[in-house]
Amino acid sequence: MLDRAPVARLALPPRILIAVAFAVAFLLTATQTSAAATVTVKAERQSEIIAIRAAAMLNADIATAWGVLTDYDHYPEFIPDLHVSRVVARDGTTITVEQSGDAALWLFRMPIHVTFEINESPPNSLQSRTVAGGVPALTSSYALTPTGAGVRLDYAGRLVTGFELAGHIEQLLVEKNAARQFRALVDEIERRSAAFRAHANASPY
Asked: Of 46, 109, 141, 191, which is least packed with CB atoms within 10 Å of its CB?
């Protein structure tokens, strides 16, 4: 394992740091490609709001994709910088999830603790919003659409920063964090789908 330099923690006002790097919570370049899937991520600033959109065409089935999206307790196993994710309440299709982790800002890290209320509409979509944690308001949605080649995954999020000081730099940092985590989600969906296909092909029945 490679040795790494100690990671510094910023002492700037938490409100500013959270808004700059917050896409770590649920979640490079604007467009990425790999042999597995093509991912596009774009963030746009609208006054005090940063709107984030992401999409990917997956070589996967919708059931597996939905299973990964709603596997909240195991998010830390494949989402970078997320240390804890646990379901604390269920009421029908409404789930409350607590998460904690680090927001990445260049060589710096900032701890984040947040609670989401998630409304599921299986097996195609879910919507979430922050309800606690002292962080900027984030509302987001995921949608799965079957295609001839697999499934399309779309994400839309709106982050209310509460200020406009950082401008374009803030927007790029949010986009970077969102892309990193969206890519990790896509990779996990395709990994599980490939494992399922391999198991099905190996089965004699």
From this structure: 46
